[in-house]
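Predict the 3D structure for this chain.
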Amino acid sequence: MKAHWSAVESQVRDGETFEVLNRGKPTVRIVPAKPVSVLEWDDHLLTAAPGVGTLSEDLVAEDRGGRY
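Done. Predicted structure below.
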């Protein structure tokens, strides 16, 4: 396999799966990697935590509830 790695890698990239045998028994399976999906989250600062994106003065005033 070491001598033919580029051919194996090319076939795996095309969707093939390989099983590596050790003394006739399967020990390793080489499978194509799944592409990582990227999460698109445009307003993450506004929706991740309450109060994020709000002025600190407004947060303090809200927390005090008119006490000061």
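The chain has one domain: 2-64.
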